[in-house]
Amino acid sequence: MALSVYERDDILAMEKRYRAAFVNSLSGFKSANLLGTSDSNRQTNLCIVSSAFHLGANPALMGVIIRPDTVPRDTLENIRETGVYTLNHVQKEMVVAAHQTSARYPHGVSEFEQVGLTPLWRERINAPYVQEAAIRLGLILREEHTMAINGTHLLVGEIIEAHVPDSCISHDGFVDIEQAGTVALSGLDSYHCTDRVGRLSYAKPDSMPEWLD
Amino acid sequence: MALSVYERDDILAMEKRYRAAFVNSLSGFKSANLLGTSDSNRQTNLCIVSSAFHLGANPALMGVIIRPDTVPRDTLENIRETGVYTLNHVQKEMVVAAHQTSARYPHGVSEFEQVGLTPLWRERINAPYVQEAAIRLGLILREEHTMAINGTHLLVGEIIEAHVPDSCISHDGFVDIEQAGTVALSGLDSYHCTDRVGRLSYAKPDSMPEWLD
């Protein structure tokens, strides 16, 4: 394949939207989650995030990146007010509705109603889950870091509730998110179903890994 | 689908490896990259990471999570010594070799040789790229954060070189990583090819998004 090398200055010189599409593609595939929040009056907010990532299993921690300039500030304000939020896996049937949550609706408008998704309330957490999602997580904010270089926020949350379909859990704890219908994202706007290559055994120095299934 | 709710205490009570597999599955699909480093004597190190994520386009920033207790410390020491590292997309043909880099080889052994991948050196950066990878990034360490809650490190790097196949770049800057053969990861050990659903237009409050292709 013919290949081009883009240096730092080439990237800095790109037109703004071109650069956003280009750089957003380079990290690889991303998770697709709907981030649900509420203010203390149960005014709900929902936005798609491609930045949720694993941070640790014990305790069960997840990171999510919030850019105050692109995501509605409601989300960040709600999380700081209530200390909680939900993450809900985006499935193929929900892709258009999920994507539409990134539109800049006015403050006071709930994305749930606008895009046609259903808030699901549970006792333990003052933030709405997405009823249509097969896998849902409720999180408590544990830590916050601000990147000095661009002002982006990293929120570290602990999972206090995980809703998982019984049929997707393997004997060893692995959750088959492909079977649950979860999609992957690439760039800013490209949605992908997945097709499993396989699971590989734990790697050891003296032998090559084997396919588990 | 029958669904179970796992609360915080249920997760904390899980057997260690079961919990690791379970929690690692919950964030959604992950990127699959080979992280290449070198010490000042050009002793190379290579390890698969599922934690690289987009942090900003201007400047072009990427985050990667390093857990000192599970990833060989060589990687972190090399990055701190040289200030640079590479990220190289894992493609389907490289999955077994890429996974094998997670084996705990002794200090002084290069994973490149052990798993059969080829280091590619460039002038601007004292870290090896993976020649077999279709998409390769060279990064300079800009910032480091340590999570108070579990000691995990977030490295923030700026992309100073991006190698991208010409055939994968769209007119608007989007890089088609599916066409490049990049795979996605889920859990600790599950590899997935992707099948594009489509790209959606920029979301606006007064209309629903349209499929771009």
UniProtKB/TrEMBL annotation, chains A, B:
- Give the matching Pfam families: Flavin_Reduct
The domain of life for this entry's organism is Bacteria
- The segment(s) forming the Flavin reductase like domain are 28-166
Any keyword Flavoprotein? yes
Q: List, separated by semicolons, the cofactors it needs.
A: FMN
The coiled-coil regions, if any, are none
* Keywords, alphabetical: Flavoprotein, FMN
What family is this? Answer: Belongs to the flavoredoxin family.
Q: What is this protein called?
A: Flavin oxidoreductase
